[in-house]
Amino acid sequence: MDDEQIRQLIDAVDDAGVAVMAVYGREIAVTQKADDSPLTDADLASHRALVAALESMEPRLPIVSEESAEIDFATRQTWDRYWLIDPLDGTKEFIKRNGEFTLNVALIEKGIPVFGVVHAPALPEGPTTWWGGRDSGAFKRVDGGVVERIRVRQLPDPDRAPWRIVGSRSHGAETFEAFCANLPRHERVSMGSSLKLCLVAEGLADLYPRLAPTCEWDTAAAHAVVTAAGGDVLNAETLEPLRCNQKESYLNPFFIVCGQRDGRWEQALEESLALPAANAQ
Ligand SMILES: Nc1ncnc2c1ncn2[C@@H]1O[C@H](COP(=O)(O)O)[C@@H](OP(=O)(O)O)[C@H]1O
Ligand SMILES: [Mg+2]
């Protein structure tokens, strides 16, 4: 991605954020999808805006969106590069109107999220965008202000500063608790959507254990930001980096997001994965 493409992409996600906020400002009609997850007009408005923008970009690449994902694996396997989007991540938080939802666009190359944009249009500090890629580093901009370079932090000595562990507001509380129970002194932060990965990318959280289901579109864009900021998104069983487009299903394995790589949490992960709740994926 060159600078002009990055600018175009960030503008496209900003514009889709405006479409989402138009729905946020009025009464939100919610329907249930086949898998029982909620869907609003905002998911669809954002999907349409992002797809139209990506289709106008060069080079033209295939697109997988949470709202248009029925593409068989045999076809997807032939793709070297494609866009993977979650038009509205944290739909439950959107409905609760707590601001913790995001728009997500990732560029996937040979299964690896190499560039990502995450946009949170309704945070108290103002509309916020994180982006990053393999060749460019990771950045954040709040409310159209200055662009700030971001970086993960080193896991502190817990006797001096507690580790900061971020978990979902709405999913996987049991396995999150089990993981935390095995850690040294720490504090817990609850957050909706891919904002959890952005907190790690910025060095505002140390670990995000996700020992509960997610899909590839939930994580890919923020995954690219985390790796560009010096962190990792690792399969919780193998500790190998997460990859997209390796199988028919879009489900991610359980994973852990960490800042600067450090083995001090591996024992806690092993112990929490041994629990029945974690094995019932
Ligand atoms: N049983 C399940 N299977 C697959 N994905 C799930 C899931 N339960 C939750 N998720 C994913 O978790 C995301 C929300 O995570 P969090 O609780 O951390 O905000 C949802 O994103 P959407 O809001 O885009 O549907 C959804 O994709
Ligand atoms: Mg999602």
TrEMBL record:
User: In which residues is Mg(2+) 2 bound?
Assistant: 86, 89, 218
Q: Does this UniProt record's set of keywords contain Acetylation?
A: no
Which residues make up the binding site for substrate? 66, 88-91, 218
Q: How does it sit in the membrane?
A: Peripheral membrane protein
Name the positions where Mg(2+) 1 binds.
Answer: 66, 86, 88
Q: Which PROSITE patterns match?
A: IMP_1, IMP_2
What keywords would UniProt list here?
A: Cell inner membrane, Cell membrane, Hydrolase, Magnesium, Membrane, Metal-binding
Record localization: Cell inner membrane
This chain's function reads:
Converts adenosine-3',5'-bisphosphate (PAP) to AMP.
Family matches, as NCBIfam families: bisphos_cysQ
In terms of PANTHER family, this protein maps to: 3'(2'),5'-BISPHOSPHATE NUCLEOTIDASE 1
This chain belongs to the protein called: 3'(2'),5'-bisphosphate nucleotidase CysQ
Classification from the root reads: Bacteria, Pseudomonadati, Pseudomonadota, Gammaproteobacteria, Oceanospirillales
